[in-house]
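Both lines are quoted verbatim for reference:

——
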Amino acid sequence: MRRHLRFLLRSSFAAAVLALFLAALSSPSPASASPPSNDNFADAQAISSFPFSDSGDLSATTLEPGEPQICNGQIGTAWYSFTASSNAPITIDESGSDGQVAFNFWQSSGGGFGGLNFVGCGSALEQRTFTPQAGATYYIQTGSVNNSGFHLQLQVKQLQGPANDNFVNAASVGGLPFTDHGVHIGNASVEPGENTFPNGAFTLLNSTVWYTITPQTSETLTASIFLFCCTSPIIAIYSGNSLGSLTQVAGASFQPVSFRANAGTTYYVQAGIPFVGCCDVTMDFSLNLAPPPTAQFFFNPFDPSVFDTVQFFDQSFDPAGLGIASQAWDLGDGSNATGCCPSRHYASDGDYTVKETVTATDGRSATAAQVVHVRTHDVSMTKLVAPTTGKVGRTVQLDAKLGNTRYPETVEVDLMKSVPGGYTQVGSLTQNVPVMRANQTIDFKINYTFTDDDAALGKVTFKAVARLLSGRDALPADNEVTSTPPTKVTQ
């Protein structure tokens, strides 16, 4: 009975295995995927127009010998190519692909892989914007970076340029001030025959827009750009009526740019940027009347007296950048001067309003004024009365006499005594000093007590030094006096 059961089990198992084997033989075998037609660089699919899209399975793509890999090392790739008809930016978007799909973007100079120059890269997680160069050929190399995720969804679009991208569509400036906000100049191109290296530019322009103005009166205008991207804009100003007949009248590598616009003449403003790769540049463009020059000056000394020569120094500048052509001065006492740095000796005390008028090279002008306060402060020490003899421990009063004939002053008188090597201060007194006649003086009386050091030396000479606290003394040489003869000191 047991032997019969084992036989049945073995027979059932064998039958099941045989059935599976026969089923496998009868089932059709899966077809192996074939590489896409653009698997190789030489067979890159041409993108003839924008927008362009493609999708497919990348699982059978291969790598060719010598195929370059930069920031995305794919296990197999497909290739696309196009030749840029303009400098208008393009976007490469693989966001609909599997997460492991990525691309490298190349510019070709010919000669296969050896002629490829890396431009940038991206993945299915991002959309990238690139600015091609008109006439150049580019390649998109796309594939999966590992053995999962082979579905490709590729979209390549060309961004639309601003309405005033071309010269014939230059935006008309009807009134001032004029501002064009949020211009996507990074989407703009350059036209055939357009000047891409205007005089004063530091690099070739890659994207430009145009503005035009015909002023009704002659005036100086300033064009400026504020950019929302890290590149340096260039502005050039032209006269003429067609792209091929323009004459540059102003322009610089550093904006803003100012120019003298004549009434009835049509001017064109070319605003541009150099090649910026993947940066979508947005700008604000402004055209306005040039501001007047800024007139300013300083003088030295700032508190002059009738004994001083006042030197004036021009500090004016032109914010429009055209420069200062001349300076004219009214020195406040009936005299005039020209140039940057005149000087004047004022004969009497008083308040003199000095005016400087500066004129820019185009005739704009501005005036600055300051009041020069001429005040001649002068006090003089006339005498220092000291005893002829002294004794250690004895206190005496020294009398310094000071004259003042000009202004009420606050004066500090320091009393000094002689020591080996010079003088040292031993007392001080501050007083308000009125104006007096020429032969009058005011007394500064300061007490002093003789010391053992004085006795050791045997004599001491006193000196009084006056210092104005209310102004600058015009003649400080007469501000000190010494006692004569020296005071003999004993124990």
About this structure: The two ends are 153 Å apart (CA to CA). The domain at 297-374 is CATH 2.60.40.10 (Immunoglobulin-like). Helices lie at 2-26, 452-457.
